[in-house]
Amino acid sequence: MENEKNRLLKISILRYDPHVKGDKPRIVTYEIEEAPGMTLFIVLNDIREHYDASLKFDFVCRAGICGSCSMLINGRPGLACRTLTSKLDTEILLAPLPFFELIGDLSIYTGKWMRGLNERLETWIHDNEEIDINQLEERMEPERAEEIYELDRCIECGCCVAGCGTIQMNNDFVGAVGLNKIARYRLDPRDKRTDEDYYELVGDEDGVFGCMTLLGCEDVCPKDLPLQSKIAYLRRKMVSMGK
Ligand code: SF4
Ligand code: F3S
Ligand code: FES
Predict the structure, then answer these.
(1) Half-sphere exposure at residue 6, Cβ-oriented, CA atoms within 13 angstroms
(2) Which residues, 6 or more positions from 232, have their beta carbon under 8 angstroms from its beta carbon?
(3) Alpha-carbon gap, residue 82 to 64, rounded angstroms
(4) Is the confidence at residue 111, as pLDDT, over 90?
(5) Which of 154, 228, 231 to mutate to test ligand 1, by most ligand atoms within 8 A of the CB atom?
(6) Are residues 44 and 72 in the same domain?
(7) pLDDT tens-digit series, residues 171-182
(8) Are residues 104 and 134 in the same domain?
(9) What pLDDT is attached to residue 127?
(10) Which ligand is nearest to the CA of 64?
(11) Same domain, yes or no: 127 and 50
């Protein structure tokens, strides 16, 4: 039987390095022969190896865990390492995620923004009691632990931020990623912050009342987090506080 010919992919990449004096944004197109099971991670490495060693993009885990390979894939935020070329047309356009600081080409600085968000929302357990290291931690109901684990699957990839219209208009909006973190700590019985404390953090237009239910966040989240229901839960909770 005759072998089916591999498709020829035309990969267009928005190239621009703000750190190179005089550099201008431009689209550069590369032609790559598709291979079985090929991901955009493989494509970009191929381009870097065979066409242009200066191409910038980020990868660490290659398994959808580290969140560093997020980019716009045909205009939609997604993870390059989890995107099979076979799911796309032969003409593919790659661009850096908007909103975040651009390092160069497809490489962006999500870590800096996420660190700022974590500091702002104090995303750690606030326990007022002194820790006795000889004391065993109180058991948590398995259902509760499961719920927390579900929200802890966020990989801080920034796709929900790039897919949210609100944050493009209000740069201080904490986004679905921030509200998901608040929902996570709100669920945790070890966190002794009160409803009032949480209200202080996200009970305004930069928080839960800024969300215009545009739904892009949940649509593009590569971890399929239940962002909508968590935002709605927080909003109900804060409205019921009568403020
Ligand atoms: Fe990425 Fe989803 Fe976390 Fe947003 S909530 S940063 S899309 S994993
Ligand atoms: Fe943005 Fe998601 Fe709300 S896209 S406006 S955070 S529902
Ligand atoms: Fe880690 Fe893609 S390389 S999520």
Answers:
(1) 12
(2) none
(3) 6
(4) yes
(5) 154
(6) yes
(7) 999 999 999 999
(8) no
(9) 85
(10) 3
(11) no
